[in-house]
Amino acid sequence: MAESDAPIITIAGERVLLGPPARSQLPLFERWENDLPLSILTGDVLRPLSREAIERHLAWVFAPPDDGLTFTIYERPSRRPIGLTGLSHISHVHRTAEFGIGLGEPDARGKGCGSEAARLVLDYAFTLLGLHNVWLRVYAYNERAIRAYRRAGFREIGRRREAHRVGARAYDEVLMDCLATGFSGSVLQRLVPAAPAEP
Question: pTM of the prediction?
Answer without folding.
Answer: 0.90
